[in-house]
Design goal:
Radius of gyration: 21 Å
Number of helices: 14
Shape: globular
Region (Disordered): 1-20
Number of domains: 1
Strand content: under 5%
Domain Fatty acid desaturase: 72-338
Order of helices and strands: HHHHHHHHHHHHHH
Protein name: Acyl-CoA desaturase
Distance between the termini: 36 Å
Largest sheet: none
InterPro entries: FA_desaturase_dom (IPR005804), Fatty_acid_desaturase (IPR012171)
Pfam families: FA_desaturase
């Protein structure tokens, strides 16, 4: 049995285990197996999800157009919320990762998809696909480690404002898409000299134009089309967006910030091999457990570990990959953080509170 790696929860440079390359080869084999098996089943899945999502959105819009009737408001808001969750989590996030690019279908391609989320797709792909997935939980390199406003590791310097982070982390949830949009502008890169002011203003312009389109659609166009039901329709759209934001915040925070998730130093990734990258992705992420519907509504990010190990494989394959990755981790003694959603949620808030104070 290989000697397990040590399991610190903070950034600390470690000597990689001697079996790291062997472990990486095993995961490469899993990946190659899924790549070779992609085909009609995967195409049917993604097109079925798109059809369901569009049907729910159409049904929700129609019901909200007569939402002076309370049952119609409840049904319309529920359908529209579910449609927005599916579009954001299982469709937008995963399509923009290139998980279905292999199909060659422009309708579900990472270069053509623009999602129903405030931040423009190109900006999100840069900060998320490139920076976050490359430097997962590396203090000083992964901006998603606290999104530049939260302290999630003791190696992040403490400032008095962090005493309030439990409050503003909670306030972020209902406006999560706005927070992510502002974060994706990377204004801190301007002060650090990595981005020009001109580039920043160009990105602000693109964000503003998309924000106007999003707001006009949900808070002007469809309410006006609803006529006498304009106000309840507007409130239904607002409720759907808020609930979608709260759910996305919950899923993403539970996949990245529970207490068992490790952070790393820049020294840890010097000369990093493929096997070491796999180890960092696994120990820098967390799964949560649930049934099929929960996983679809979370964009299969209840399998966050599998997503970080194989970010460009179809999300519908993560459920079959998860027990195999977990078994491989058990064989090599690699920590694999998982548990019920409620427990990961509580653990995440424990981390937010713990690192709000010095030390």
């Amino acid at each position: 049995m290989p000697t397990p790696p040590s399991k610190p929860t903070t950034a600390h440079p470690l000597e990689p285990p001697p079996w790291t390359d062997e472990f990486g080869t095993e995961l490469d084999r899993l990946r190659a197996e899924i790549v070779a098996g992609r085909g009609a089943r995967d195409a049917r899945y993604i097109h079925r999800v798109i059809a369901v999502q569009r049907g729910l959105e159409a049904g929700g819009r129609i019901a909200l157009s007569v939402s002076l009737l309370p049952p119609a408001w409840l049904a319309g808001t529920a359908m529209l919320t579910t449609a927005k969750v599916l579009e954001n989590m299982e469709l937008g996030h995963n399509i923009l990762h290139g998980q279905w690019d292999w199909m060659g279908d422009p309708a579900v391609h990472s270069t053509t998809w623009e999602w129903d989320f405030l931040t423009p797709a190109d900006a999100w792909k840069h900060t998320h696909n490139h920076l976050h997935h490359t430097y997962t939980n590396v203090v000083g390199r992964d901006r998603d480690l606290g999104y530049t406003i939260l302290r999630m590791s003791p190696e992040q310097p403490w400032r008095p404002v962090y005493l309030l982070q439990p409050l503003y982390a909670a306030l972020l949830a209902p406006v999560f898409e706005w927070g992510i949009a502002l974060y994706d502008l990377e204004a801190d890169a301007v002060t650090a000299g990595r981005k020009s002011v001109r580039s920043l203003f160009g990105e602000i312009g693109r964000l503003f134009r998309k924000g106007v389109r999003q707001a006009a659609k949900d808070y002007v166009l469809f309410p006006l089309l609803a006529g006498p039901s304009a106000l309840p329709c507007l409130l239904g759209n607002l409720t759907a967006n808020v609930l979608r934001n709260v759910w996305a915040h919950t899923v993403i925070f539970c996949g990245h910030f529970p207490g068992d998730v490790r952070t790393f130093s820049e020294a840890d990734i010097e000369g990093e091999t493929r096997g070491q990258w796999y180890l960092r992705q696994i120990q820098g992420s967390a799964d949560f457990e649930g049934g099929f519907l929960l996983h679809v509504l979370s964009g299969n990010l209840g399998h966050q570990i599998e997503h970080h190990v194989f970010p460009d494989l179809p999300s519908s394959r993560y459920a079959e990959l998860a027990p195999r990755v977990r078994s491989l981790c058990a064989e090599y003694g690699v920590p694999y953080a998982t548990g019920p959603l409620w427990r990961q949620y509580a653990s995440m808030w424990g981390r937010v509170v713990r690192y709000a104070v010095p030390g």
